[in-house]
Here is the input.
Amino acid sequence: QVVETGGGLVQPGGSLRLSCVAFEFTVSDNYMSWVRQAPGKGLEWVSIIYSGGTTYSADSVKGRFTLSRDISKNTLYLQMKSLRAEDTAVYYCVRSAMVQGIIIALDIWGPGTLVTVSS
Amino acid sequence: QSALTQPASVSGSPGQSITISCTGTSSDVGGYNYVSWYQQHPGKAPKLLIYDVSSRPSGVSNRFSGSKSANTASLTISGLQAEDEADYYCSSYRSSSTLGVFGTGTKVTIL
Here is the structure.
């Protein structure tokens, strides 16, 4: 399983760092994604980090959100800056199953952490 | 990037079968067998139901089945039960994107 922490209320333009700790599997051996869901809306892929460390992000967050991981803590991080009202959402940390570089399934989801961007 | 198209809502009576469609293009659903489906109950995280169009992870009921024809994938729920009332999302690989793409979501209501 995975558990996210770090959500909360932040003002527009502010920063926040989300954490995702994994249990029973190694974060650095897997492909890990962040998926978000705005209140009452659908799912949106935010970012992914490959086991080798390469990261990709959606255009909507590129340049503002950064993925990293701490192998010693088996933890994934999502550093978010220049936050906007439209970034308000529940953020899920998800283990991603991949085949030949293609994401085929999101098989382990955390309970999510709510980020609210508002003044 | 544009989402895959799903009906906003589908309903059925207990014991019946329903099918949820997920329509894309030849660059995603139609071009690859990498369609997955997720179930989300209110206030909960999504749960993987189907991957690779029609494969079920261990522990998922065989009342859930997936298929695909051309640019449209489908999720069929047979023997509807009250616990099946939830939101359902499809997802697919898209050739123009490293990240996958989700469907718009379908709310299933048990009558």
Chain A has a mean pLDDT of 95. DSSP finds no helices and eleven strands in chain A. Residues 25 and 65 of chain A are 25 Å apart (CA to CA). The radius of gyration of chain A is 13 Å.
